[in-house]
Design brief:
Shape: rod-shaped
Radius of gyration: 57 Å
Helix content: 40-55%
Number of strands: 10
Oligomer: single chain
Distance between the termini: 194 Å
Amino acid sequence: MSTEEQKQKSGSKGGVIVLTILLLLSVAGNIWQFFNTQGVKTEAAQVVKEMDTLTARKVELETEVSQITSELEQFKGRSAELDSLLADAERKIEDQKRQISGLIEQKKDYQILQARYADLQKLKDGYLLEIDRLLAENKELKYQNTELSVKVDKLSEEKVDLTEKVNYASALKIQNVRLTPYKLQAKGKQKEVEKASKADRINIKFTVLPNKLSAIGPKTAYIRIVNPAGLVMADVSAASKKFTTRDGAEMTFSRQVTFDYDGNVSTREVNWDQEVFSKGTYKIEIFIDGDYAGGESVVLE
């Protein structure tokens, strides 16, 4: 083989070696790039996974706290004592929430978070038990107040009834009611008559009986004179006079007599003057301070 041919063969072998080395370097580079890319992808996937887990745990925390708060808030507004208790619960739940949120940010083990969630539930359950106790006490207190109110109302009714009985029992009564028709004569003298055509005065006299239940002091006797036509006689020149009975009824009266009651028997009298009296029965009704005291009638021929 000539020298030239040897040089060509030697150069050909060197080129093959160089190409082989370059090929190997290229393959090595591709392999490195592949594994490097896979590592980056794995690391990125791990970061995304951790971010998703962090978001999920934050959402879980908000949901847990929202449910607990909702359970407690349904009792708001029922009483000042309950509202105060719920305000205290709200503060403690918020504090627990902050602590759990801090653990989430620190990427603490989920078992630790579960333990803190369990503490949060115990806190809520404890407040629910206290709420039940307060509601039971309030219910019992309301029942007692209702029962007491019924008793008070009953006592008030009994007191009113007793007061009315005492008032009626304290009413003054009269007796010996005498109705005497008179004819007025000269010099202020008067003569007892029986005929209506001769009478121009009816004298009404009655005895007030003592009553230990009646208060000492001024009393007013209202006298109703009812004529044969059934009408209460009144002064023509004056408007109708009325008084109110203890039962609240308004009644017209003819005359009134005010006297001081001292607890003893006393006699009172009043005159009714009229130019002409009709024949028939004249009825007298006497009320003292609104209570019927007695009455009588007289017949004029």
